[in-house]
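User: I'm writing a tutorial on reading structure tokens. Could you give me a worked example: one chain, its sequence, then its tokens, then a sentence or two explaining what the tokens reveal?
Assistant: Sure. Here is the example chain.
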Amino acid sequence: MSTASGDPTTGTADFFAAPLADASLPEEWESGQQAVTEQATNPASGTDEMSAPEEQVTRTSATPLPGAPNGAAALPYRPTRGRYRSSGGGFHLELRVDVDSTAGGPKVLNRISGDFFSTSGATTTYYGSLVVHAPTVTRSATQVVISGLGTYTWQAGAPIVRVTIPRRRINQPQGTATVQFLTTSNQPGAGYTCGYVSPYFRTVQWEQDSVTGRIPFLSYDTGSLPQPPNSPARALTVPRAYAEAGIELLMSGTANTIADSPGGWTNTELHGAMQTNFSLWRDAPQWKVWLLVAGSYEGMAGVRGIMFDAADSFQRQGCAVFYDLIKGTDAESQRAQLRTYVHELGHSFNLLHSWQKNLAQPPAPLGPQNGFGDLSWMNYPQNYLPPTGTGGAAAYWGAFPFQFTDNELVHLRHGFYRDVVMGANAFGIGAADIEPELFDEPLADESGLRLDLRVTKSGFAFGEPVVVELKLDTTDLRGRSTHDHLHPDDELVHIAIRQPSGRTVLYRPLLRRCVDQDATVRLDTDRPAIYSSAYIGYGRDGHYFQQPGTYQLRASYLASDGSRIVSPVLRLHVRHPVSQSDIELAELMMGEEQGTILALRGSDSPSLQAGNDALQEVIERHANHPFAVYARLAKGLNFEHEFKSLSPDKAGLNVRPPDTKSGIEQLSQVVKVSEQGKGVDNLTLNLATRRLARAYARQGDLEEAGSTLDRLVRHFDTPAFKPYVVDAVRSQADSTKARLLAEFGDS
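And here are its predicted structure tokens:
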């Protein structure tokens, strides 16, 4: 039995613990060929290396195997690769060895890594992780020795790692790894015996459910459509796509078929469905993930998938794909389905979009063209920008070899445990401290675009929800084309917040959507600008404006051509509370549940009941206070909308119908106060007014619905607003009238 000190690299361990049972190579890797490291002359071996280690190879002539005829050539060696695990009490080590492969097997990254766990009685807890990025590899006829200086999640007393693994032929079981830790003065520390577990670096249990009438994706033949010549044609399933990355995805649990939500699914409803249907779910870090094949996403066109589980303390356990946007049996549809499934599951492994890697913690370098040049599962095809030539979806698919990039593979295989395992570190990792230089103005800007970040008031009361307005316009009289994803939820706009303490953090929205759809807009003299409004007071890291003082904000927009447009600095002041009443109101507004409700624009979720109660108290006890308009907005939008939850038997949906009377009561007050300039910003007023009109139409009063929309147009049809803004509002009002008439005209 192992014993351990406070540092697993300096304690002691039993070198004679029994190894775990052998596991064979996946069938697609087991070709009976020599390990790639013994086939240096084979250019098709697929072993392009990220950073070649210092490698010393001692080659000896092959000797016959026991029982082989005299002079018979020895069988090839097994690759020294995969996952190993020590056993016994105290500390135990899960080791990953990535210095070898077979022809056609996963790419060699030339790393070893591991995770330490501590066992006490009947409980096991995570201790820390290590990685050696460029080990020295020495091979002889009998063993492979891998050594190097590790990077740890703690200050290791013996940071040098030496792993010795006996070489085995393909008809022999894999050898056991002996791990010795050494101090920088070469004194021995702890040692571990790690039995071979699997050729995969990590194993994840994947449970998949679908809604009625939606058929889950099975496989795509990559040879069905043009692809790069260096990418072999093969039938790719989602598990095989991850197997090629060295990750085992095991289908687990029971595949439930649940009732669909005809109007589309919200994030809150998806999270509730996960808690009800994910048989492996619990609030704890675990290598388990759930995917729902749903019909559609509510409230926004173009959302093909979403990693919706980014709002609590145990994130990244669930994601969804939306069948209605990717359905089809033709080759293009099957290809799109494969990419969407792999992409959303990639977010569950804590992989960011290709253009966001520099905003992660720790930051990773961006690929070509600010990340838009990545040929990766995590890029958007329509965003692809090659170093030369025309970009877009056709160029992406013509060059995409159906794989992750090298730094994504490093994360998947060798990222520290809590940064990768589902339910541990939050999406994007940690509290999102960032370097302010990431938002510095470019040295030269010929994009023809300009971004502005602004607020409609000179300051905010302590506890008041912070809403900002974003404006993107063109400085080129000839006009410019770009995408219109201007809201931070779509992850092509980022906002940095320098707090009064001097700390700079990244606003990370509670909701994050994969809007995998081309949405090109032309900015010219007819339409010189587009606008968006965003509540940024609360996100995945909690409340961002928790202390009085001056904040400095700056936004960054990633344009379709890869240009990074940076706004001027916005200075925003949060006033000190001056009375006990101010403090009490701030407490009612700034709870975690209240922040979630404001970000979600209302929710009936039982887990948010305390937040709803607090907002109701603001409405009832402080009806005339400026904060009440925000509480009314969240409650009113929620009342106007139905709320869905799964029935206990999981076979149907419980639908709370819209409460039009309560919705009208709350939203009419929001509109009235805001029209007087004492409520929400104009973009939010536009939204609230159109939802109020919908509530009137739903209760059968189409005349009042039309009058409400007419008042909206009159509010904007003044010299204070530019003509193209008035035209846009009038167009929205007219299209809303047409939809309401079509939906409720016969009721």
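What the tokens reveal: The first strand starts at residue 55 and ends at 57. The chain has a mean pLDDT of 85.
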